[in-house]
Amino acid sequence: MTVDQVAGPRDTPPGPGRVPVVIVGAGPVGVTAALLLARRGVSSVVLERHHGVYPLPRAVATDDEVRRILQAAGVQEEFAAIARPARGLRLLDARHRVMAEFPRTAQGPHGFPQTSMFDQPELERLLRDALARRPECELRSGVEVVGVEEDADGPVRVTYRDEEGEHLLRADAVLGCDGANSVTRDAIGTVWEDLRFEERWTVVDVRTSLPVRSWEGVDQVCDPNRPATFMRIGEDRYRWEFRLRDASEPDRERLRELIAPWVDLADGADFDVVRQAQYTFRARVADRWHRGRVFLLGDAAHLTPPFIGQGLCSGLRDAYNLTWKLARVLRQGADERLLGTYESERKPHVRHVVRLAVAMGWAMTGGQDGAAAVRRSVLGAACRIPGITRAAGRELSPALAAGPLVRRRARRHGRGLVGRLCPQPWVTAEGRRARLDDVLGDDFAVLTVAPLSPSLQALAHGLGARIVPVSGSRDDGGLADWLRGGRADAALLRPDRVVADVVPAGGRDFTDTVGWASLLHTTRSPGPAPADRPAAA
User: Fold this and answer.
1) Alpha helix locations (H) across 191-261?
2) CB-count exposure of residue 171 (10 Å: 0-12, 13-18, 19+)
3) Residue 14: per-residue pLDDT
4) What are the two backbone dihedrals, phi and then psi, of residue 494, each rounded to the nearest 5 degrees?
5) Which of the two residues, 416 and 125, has the higher pLDDT score?
6) Facing residues of 432 across strands?
7) How far apart are the first and last CA of the chain?
8) Mean pLDDT confidence for 424-439
9) Which residue from 331, 275, 341 is spatially nearest to 119, judged by alpha carbons?
10) Is the pTM higher than 0.85?
11) Helix axes 454-463, 513-520, angle to 10 degrees
């Protein structure tokens, strides 16, 4: 066995094979986690079994909250060049008549289209290009992780194998981003909780110049005999998904019949099937998301049917939630209990999203029994109630549950604010227009419409929080109205831009500064920021 020489973390002497973080899996979740850590000065080694980007499409949709995560990872401009805004989701009956429509706007509250379509291999390539530009990150491809073990009161030992033999890395933390068949999940003894949904579907990705009948959004066909999904991904890229009655794939003639409502496929027509594959859609959540400093993210921690387009989105939210906490512990000596809030915050959120996808799936595709027909009828009627489709869209990403870093208030102060991401308008700061997050930087921030008390100023200073007065003018992008609408004079924003707490209108302090400040208290400075971190105005 050989031992790699890797620079150790700042809080421990360098040693053989010592690295702050090992990330298992170089898919979008793993690479995004590495980029987010790098922007906070934390080095990582990413281990990936494939030599290159997996070339076939898989995930195809993201929302505006997740566009914001890609912005934080430093790849927003590149992603914008490959993304295509979508108009939303339509539910169609068996005759392709519209039952309901869930519209999505071209400019959501987070500064981006509420739904964007993309090609996953293109996303992975731009993420890897960004990874290659970061000196804090190292990608080791073509390797197989064969062991993850945590020493008692010591580093995590990661053993991997390549063409030269076995190698050992010792890490202060390990992020298992290695998918549904996760080696990391097995290593920490986690098992699946089955949320009782399993269906086999065939997915057909196509490139064609034919005129395809598309409304520039997603169609979900609620047909008990052949439920289907259709979406336009790019200029000449389309995807169809059909539930299978048996294990056989539809041949070209059967495929011609299935796609006839959208496109006329004549013999010899320009219609290139890029990929046709069977998938089993499942709904599962891991019973435990970490043991010690070994964490599960993405498909290693949860599986969801694709009906509301939140599979990859949930994994990227995992990375955003965990990385700032891990960086604060590793680089600034914050309380170890801070890492426990990753599972307590993300697991209920993911469970909600998965159950919503399952409910949507059963309502639309839940078989040919009488109950399924009733479900579809109720769904169609419910979606005709004014405002119901808008409410359903808002609940795709619910507020985080109350906890140490999400402080709920009595009465109505902060209602609709705490536990949710703050909006991200364009603002003017020091004479330049920028998105809010590029102005705030990467740490805590306080948005306020009233002068802060001396105690709050001291608290903000202790957190390293930037205090940003908002005046109600056009320059603040509506942030003052957002605060006042939540009956708050100030909001404390976490580094992931979730509102942790508010100062109620006319109040003087946050809810319980002792409880959460003890978790966030740091024992040392993080040191100089990476050179490319956005300058905070």
Assistant:
1) 252-259
2) buried
3) 42
4) -75, 170
5) 125
6) 429
7) 50
8) 91
9) 275
10) yes
11) 20
